[in-house]
UniProtKB/TrEMBL annotation:
Transmembrane segment boundaries: 260-280
Organism: Laceyella sediminis
Pfam families in UniProt: SQHop_cyclase_C (PF13243), SQHop_cyclase_N (PF13249)
Domain Squalene cyclase N-terminal: 18-300
Family to which the UniProt record says this protein belongs: Belongs to the terpene cyclase/mutase family.
Name listed for the protein in its UniProt record: Sporulenol synthase
NCBIfam families reported in the protein's UniProt record: squalene_cyclas
Boundaries of every Squalene cyclase C-terminal domain copy: 311-627
SUPFAM superfamilies according to UniProt: Terpenoid cyclases/Protein prenyltransferases
PANTHER family in the cross-refs: LANOSTEROL SYNTHASE (PTHR11764:SF20), TERPENE CYCLASE/MUTASE FAMILY MEMBER (PTHR11764)
InterPro entries reported in the protein's UniProt record: SQ_cyclase_C, SQ_cyclase_N, Squalene_cyclase, Terpene_synthase_CS, Terpenoid_cyclase/PrenylTrfase
Pathway noted in the entry: Secondary metabolite biosynthesis; hopanoid biosynthesis
Species lineage: Bacteria, Bacillati, Bacillota, Bacilli, Bacillales
Keyword entries, A-Z: Isomerase, Membrane, Repeat, Transmembrane, Transmembrane helix
Length: 631
């Protein structure tokens, strides 16, 4: 920015070209872009624990993962899921300690591990951990299954007409819950050397009341299952039928790389469930699963990391779209190879999504390269946006239309869009007495997904508020805007993410600025500008469900906020100018924490994501939109 306060447009162009060069250089031979999907210690710990349980070696991967775990331990002995998390995270600390103990990398008597134990004790002990962590304690025999809410395996057999059934859970929840139900049914646990010492190290804080005691009005899944048990007279035949159903459910959803639904955490649980059912440790299914998980390794600034999933399709779609916006020619080799890769990733098989959306042809895209049966709305609209130049062009154009038809068919009855499946918002899911909450077990409409769909429909399909599908989505956003003018984003952090997605979507379909909902949202967004000119929101917002400001701005969140403001202003405002100056400054500091702050959300208080692609993609889009409008 010049002294007089006017942009140096040339500087914006220079930064845009630099980002373009970085992305062009990162393309793989097959046309894809492969960036790391980085999270906390959970996935590294789970993989290390699996290696120990199975007695496997990992060709140097184990010491590299241990090195990253040790590098990310705080001076207080804890582990965090985001940098400004107070003191540490109970789940992350427990999981990291278990992995280090069982691999022999650390001893419970180590001073830093003693500090970790003291932290856990002060926080309330293992009872304060998340569900996956507590299941891990069950699987390793540190806590008995009797202290968990055990869902009877007969739950799998509840019919479709039942008010409560297994498929009320969304797909990513089902593939985690099914193996836990199976392992809990067998009360399965492994007994490894060193268990006694770890038992002595584990803080024995007073336990919370049992999970079932937390249920309202005496409701529980055990009560819900009582009638089916009575009718079957607890016959072993019904029980074993349910066990077989659960086993087959998992096996039939294994992807080509051996993983369950392309997730590390579900694959981790599946392996324990298979062991509980008598599968030997060297069984081909187990070995293939471990090979698939090993392929999830990526490099981070603190060492080698095993990703929860690979983000190849998502990254490729966003990069190709961003480069296309920034002037990449469609006839170029880069664009053609990227388009071919995306087209090859379009799914052509019916998945579980079709149960609640019958008669619709496949046509969506998933998140990971290996994903062939679990498409999602965000990856589909991102892929369609990137491939929109192919619309109306032969077989490729037909593939695009199939994707559009699938996307439109997934609109929920309430008018919004959710991430994975349609109308997964039953009330009973909110009664599950686990800290993760309804949004984990179901898949309700969300402001971020709904807003992003609207933006796609406006920018690439040409729809406006006159379309009935658009009006229904606008109505959903209207009724779910918070009193302060913001929207909560389910899959990003958090209010900046949701408000950016909603505003840019509404702008794309022609909702004018003078509308009260728009005026409120813009006022809220401006009010969150930091003193440095940018925007930064803490992951704490996702936990506390209220906006919590970061003391300094981040690259990605500043780009999001500016994008939203640009979409609703005819001329650069002082707020936009200050924001752009901050963004340009941040882009010149690629090694700063503002580049690596996690802005992806998965599990509130437990799982956050640093997308390595985001500091390149979102600023590139924002700079390009600024230049197209005012450059």
């Amino acid at each position: 920015m010049e002294e007089g306060g006017r942009f140096v447009v040339e500087r914006i162009r220079e930064q845009r070209e630099r980002l373009k060069r970085q992305l062009l250089a990162a393309q793989s031979a097959d046309g894809s872009w492969n960036f790391c999907f980085e999270s906390g210690p959970m996935t590294d710990a789970y993989y290390l624990l699996l290696l120990k349980v199975l007695g496997m070696e990992a060709d140097g991967l184990q010491p590299a993962l241990i090195e990253r775990l040790l590098a990310n331990q705080t001076d207080e002995g804890t582990w965090k899921t985001y940098p400004d998390e107070s003191e540490g995270n109970v789940s992350a600390t427990l999981e990291a300690c278990l992995a280090l103990f069982y691999t022999g990398a650390k001893d419970p008597s180590d001073p830093r591990m003693k500090r970790a134990r003291q932290f856990l004790l002060e926080q309330g002990g293992p009872s304060r951990a998340g569900s996956l962590t507590r299941v891990t304690l069950n699987l390793f025999g540190h806590k008995p299954w009797e202290f968990r809410m055990r869902v009877p395996v007969e739950f799998f057999l509840m019919p479709r007409w039942s008010p409560i059934q297994f498929f009320d859970l969304v797909g990513y929840a089902r593939v985690h819950v099914a193996p836990v139900i199976l392992a809990a049914d067998r009360r399965f646990s492994v007994q490894l050397p060193g268990k006694q010492e770890i038992d002595e190290w584990l803080p024995q804080a007073p336990s919370l009341p049992s999970d079932q005691a937390l249920l309202p009005d005496g409701w529980s899944l055990e009560v819900a299952m009582r009638e089916i048990r009575r009718q079957a007279a607890l016959r072993r035949e019904l029980h074993e039928k349910a066990v077989r159903w659960g086993r087959d459910f998992m096996l039939s959803r294994i992807e080509g790389d051996g993983t369950l639904y392309s997730y590390l955490s579900s694959t981790y649980l599946m392996i324990f469930a298979l062991l509980s059912l008598g599968f030997p440790k060297h069984h081909p299914v187990v070995r293939r699963a471990m090979g698939g998980l090993a392929s999830f390794a990526c490099s981070t600034p603190t060492g080698t990391h095993i990703q929860e999933a690979t983000s190849t399709v998502w990254d490729t779609a966003l990069v190709l779209q961003s480069l296309g916006m920034a002037g990449l020619e469609q006839g170029s080799d880069t664009w053609q190879r990227g388009a071919r890769f995306l087209l090859s990733m379009q799914q052509d098989r019916l998945g579980d999504w079709a149960r609640d959306n019958p008669g619709v042809h496949p046509g969506g895209w998933g998140f990971s390269r290996s994903n062939t049966m679990n498409p999602d709305i965000d990856d589909t609209l991102a892929s369609l946006s990137a491939l929109s130049p192919l619309r109306g062009k032969g077989a490729e154009g037909e593939a695009w239309e199939r994707g559009l038809a699938w996307l439109l068919s997934m609109q929920n009855d309430d008018g919004g869009w959710s991430a994975f499946e349609k109308n997964k918002d039953k009330r009973w899911l909110s009664l599950i007495p686990l800290k993760e909450g309804k949004q984990v077990w179901g898949d309700p409409s969300s402001a971020d997904i709904t807003g992003r769909v609207l933006r796609f429909l406006g920018e690439h399909v040409g729809w406006t508020i006159d379309r009935p599908e658009v009006r229904r989505a606008w109505s959903w956003l209207y009724h779910h805007q918070r009193l302060d003018g913001s929207w909560f984003g389910r899959w990003g952090i958090a209010y900046l993410y949701g408000t950016w997605a909603a505003l840019t979507g509404l702008a794309a379909v022609g909702v004018p600025r003078h509308q009260p909902m728009i005026k409120k949202a813009l006022k809220w967004l401006v009010s969150k500008q930091n003193e440095d000119g940018g925007w930064g929101e803490s992951c704490k917002s996702d936990v506390k469900r209220t906006y919590i400001r970061l003391p300094r701005s981040t690259v990605v969140q500043t780009a999001w906020a500016l994008d939203a403001l640009i979409s609703y202003h005819e001329q650069p405002t002082p707020v936009i100018e200050r924001g752009m100056a901050c963004l340009l400054s941040l882009l010149e500091q690629p090694n700063s924490w503002q580049w690596r702050y996690p802005v992806g959300a998965g599990l509130a208080g437990q799982f956050y994501v640093t997308y390595h692609s985001y500091p390149l993609i979102w600023p590139l889009q924002t700079l390009t939109r600024y230049l197209k409008k005012w450059g």
